[in-house]
Amino acid sequence: MNVLDTLRLEGSLQSRGLRAAGRAEDADVALLNTCSVREKAAQKVLSRLGELKRAREEGGKPEVVGLCGCVAQQDGATLLARSPVLNFVLGPGRIGQLSAALDEVADGRRVSITGFPETEDYDSHLIARGTGARQYVTAIHGCNQHCTFCVVPYTRGHEKSRRMEEIVGEVRDLAAQGTKEVTLLGQTINAYRCPTTRADLGDLLGAVSAVEGLWCTQFITSHPAFFTDALIAKLARARRLGTYLHVPFQSGSSAVLKWMHRGYTREQYLELVAKLRDALPGVTLSTDVIVGFPGETEEDFSATLDLVSQVKFGQLYGFIYSPRPRTPAARYGEHVAREVASNRLARLFAAQSVIQLALNQALMAHRVEVLIDGPAKRGSGWWQGRGPDNRVVNVPAWKGINQGQLAPVTITGATPHALLGERVGDQGSAA
Ligand code: SAM
């Protein structure tokens, strides 16, 4: 969601004739797009603002500094008052007003534009998407869940689904320009309801997947409490749907889930996993986990480890609980010591790494279709792509390999975090 917001900001700057400068210190206008889900990200903003202040004092640039995103919504007005380097702040619900903010700044004013207007012009035509074959498309803005740890409802506002017709139109335009994979975005994507037709996520996926030229449709993030049987049945029928499903469980302990206000128990989560696997054979489940939530005991954490070992997720994102402003959990007592939480996170990652390695090794000799993303981090001569299950596949480059190319690949190696493969037909030949 933050990546897409950044592209919206960039597109809006481009529409004013501005071009990327490479370094914020050399730019006329520097925007910081920020996340405040965890404290660390919010702290980074302060140190970056300090660096930009020094750069301006020394070299006069950046001439204009704007703070955007969730930290802007959360602390924008205070930061504007405290940081003279800032010219304006712009909340995530106000991205469409970037140009207006820059006009104000050009007239010598410092402005804070935050909050969530009832009707926002969603300028999808202004997104600086480039030529990437994978694209994000917003389906729902905001979040209504109020999990006790989470700042998102305060920084992104209430849930608002976009009209299905508008989303499908955006996807159609993208496919016509060469997009192969679309990921529909929402904090609780499976709560999607078209405001005019009441179509649900299943209907939306049916319509998006039917768009000519698309190879695959993905969607993130699903909330465990919003998978009805009817929705699961529609997912099972949708064509060209990715086999990657991100369903955060957060904690394996029903007591902690209750304190988190997640709306399901450990048993209900496990039942859902069984249903999803039954309806969507071959699905790769991915998840988010928080460790060190206030009051989490060693026994609660063991329940998390146990759930991980039962479900065998293909990917897992783990976080140490971070108290966030205005959230109920920030006022809970029984803090878990930092060292205890770090130790739990390390144990969680170690357990998951063993599981991921085994799952990836089981894919050896399988044939998968991979959408090529670009040169791999692994080193020169290697490129990387991902299959419909979102697993990274590193391949030796072949003549004419290109970003956005689809290639059948045979899996030849596995690590916990990536697969190795060779294009079908290339086996034994040098890259
Ligand atoms: N809307 C999704 C959900 O509720 O499942 C994801 C929201 S959040 C942007 C992504 C992940 O960050 C969450 O799933 C959670 O694991 C983690 N997270 C959110 N708030 C956190 C906090 N206060 N401390 C640590 N991790 C947090």
Layout of helices and strands:
Elements: H1 2-15, E1 29-34, H2 39-59, E2 64-69, H3 70-82, E3 88-90, H4 98-106, E4 111-113, E5 134-138, E6 140-141, H5 152-156, E7 160-161, H6 164-176, E8 181-185, H7 201-209, E9 216-220, H8 229-237, E10 244-246, H9 254-260, H10 266-279, E11 284-291, H11 298-311, E12 315-320, H12 338-361, E13 367-375, E14 382-386, E15 392-396, E16 406-414, E17 419-423
Parallel strand pairs: 1-2, 2-3, 3-4, 5-8, 8-9, 10-11, 11-12, 15-17
Antiparallel strand pairs: 6-7, 13-14, 13-16, 14-15, 16-17
Helix pairs in contact: 7-8, 11-12
The chain binds S-adenosylmethionine.
Question: Your description of this structure?
Answer:
- This protein has helices spanning 2-15, 39-59, 70-82, 98-106, 152-156, 164-176, 201-209, 229-237, 254-260, 266-279, 298-311, 338-361, and strands spanning 29-34, 64-69, 88-90, 111-113, 134-138, 140-141, 160-161, 181-185, 216-220, 244-246, 284-291, 315-320, 367-375, 382-386, 392-396, 406-414, 419-423.
- The radius of gyration is 23 Å and the shape is globular.
- The chain is built from twelve helices and 17 strands.
- The two termini are 36 Å apart.
- The strands form five sheets. A five-stranded mixed barrel has the order 13-14-15-17-16.
- Helices cover 35% and strands 20% of the residues.
- The longest helix is centred in the last third of the chain and has 24 residues, at 338-361.
- The chain folds into three domains: 2-113, Rossmann fold; 124-361, tm_1862 like domain (pyruvate-formate lyase- activating enzyme, Alpha-Beta Horseshoe), CATH 3.80.30.20; 367-423, OB fold (Dihydrolipoamide Acetyltransferase, E2P), CATH 2.40.50.
- It has 431 residues and is an alpha/beta fold.
- S-adenosylmethionine binds at residues 37-38, 143, 145, 147, 149-150, 152, 187-188, 221, 223, 248, 250, 288, 290, 319, 321-322, 324.
